[in-house]
C-alpha cells in the first residue's frame, strides 16, 4: 500500500476540507499499474467509470496514481477545466511529480488536493445558506 493509515487519514481530511468550502468534488484513485497507454487515458476512463461527470457544476477532479508503473494524472471535468485552464493542471502535475520522485507521495497528494480545493473554492464557492451536498464519496479508491 502506498499510504500508511495516518497518511490516508490526512488525505481524507484534505479532501473533506477542500469540499467543505466549495461545491466541487475530489477523488483519489490508486492502483499498482496503469492499464492504458497513458495515465491521462486511464484517469479519463476512471472519471467516467465512477460517474464523476455527474456533479451539478461539472467540477469534479480525479487524482490518479499508478504506484508500480510510476504514472500519475490529474483529470478535471469541463467546468473546473474552463475556470483554471491548462497552466493550473501543469503546475499540479509538476508538484506531484516532484513529491513522488522524492518519495513523498502522501504530502504531494495532500498539497495537490489543497491547491485544487482552493481553486474550487474560488470558482465554485459553497453557498452558506444552502446544503452543500457531498455528491461523490470521499474515500480513497484502491484498484
Protein traits:
globular; Diaminopimelate Epimerase, Chain A, domain 1; 49% helix; four-stranded mixed β-sheet; 4 strands; 143 residues
Write a structural description.
α1 packs parallel to α4 (105-123) and α3 runs antiparallel to α4. β2 (60-66) and β3 form a beta hairpin. It contains 4 helices and 4 strands. The mean pLDDT is 95. The protein has helices at 5-20, 39-49, 78-101, 105-123, and strands at 25-31, 60-66, 71-76, 141-142. The longest helix is centred in the middle third of the chain and has 24 residues, at 78-101. It is of the alpha/beta class. The protein has a single domain (5-126, 138-142), classed as Diaminopimelate Epimerase, Chain A, domain 1. It has a 4-stranded mixed sheet, with helices on both faces.
What is the gist of this entry?
The chain is an alpha/beta fold and 143 residues long. It has helices spanning 5-20, 39-49, 78-101, 105-123, and strands spanning 25-31, 60-66, 71-76, 141-142. The chain has a single domain (5-126, 138-142), classed as Diaminopimelate Epimerase, Chain A, domain 1 (Roll), CATH 3.10.310.50.
Produce the secondary structure layout.
Layout lengths: L4 H16 L4 E7 L7 H11 L10 E7 L4 E6 L1 H24 L3 H19 L17 E2 L1
β-strand percent reads 15-25%
Class from secondary-structure proportions: alpha/beta
Strand order of the largest sheet: 3-2-1-4
How would the global form be characterised? globular
Number of strands: 4
Distance between the termini: 11 Å
The CATH architecture term is Roll
Q: What share of the residues lie within helices?
A: 40-55%
CATH class: Alpha Beta
User: What is the C-alpha radius of gyration, as a whole number of Å?
Assistant: 14 Å
Q: CATH topology, which one? A: Diaminopimelate Epimerase, Chain A, domain 1
Domain module tally: 1
Number of DSSP helical runs: 4
Low-confidence stretches are: none
Query: Overall mean pLDDT score?
Result: 95
Amino acid at each position: 500500500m502506498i499510504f500508511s493509515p495516518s497518511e490516508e487519514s490526512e488525505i481524507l481530511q484534505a479532501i473533506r476540507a477542500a469540499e467543505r468550502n466549495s461545491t466541487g468534488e475530489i477523488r483519489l484513485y490508486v492502483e499498482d499499474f496503469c492499464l492504458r497507454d497513458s495515465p491521462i487515458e486511464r484517469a479519463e476512463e476512471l472519471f467516467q467509470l465512477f460517474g464523476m461527470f455527474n456533479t451539478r457544476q461539472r467540477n469534479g477532479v480525479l487524482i490518479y496514481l499508478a504506484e508500480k508503473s510510476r504514472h500519475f494524472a490529474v483529470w478535471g471535468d469541463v467546468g473546473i477545466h474552463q475556470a483554471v485552464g491548462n497552466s493550473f493542471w501543469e503546475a499540479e502535475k509538476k508538484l506531484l511529480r516532484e513529491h513522488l520522485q522524492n518519495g513523498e507521495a502522501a504530502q504531494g497528494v495532500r498539497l495537490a488536493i489543497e491547491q485544487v480545493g482552493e481553486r474550487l473554492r474560488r470558482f465554485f464557492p459553497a453557498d452558506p445558506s444552502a446544503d452543500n451536498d457531498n455528491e461523490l464519496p470521499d474515500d480513497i479508491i484502491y484498484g
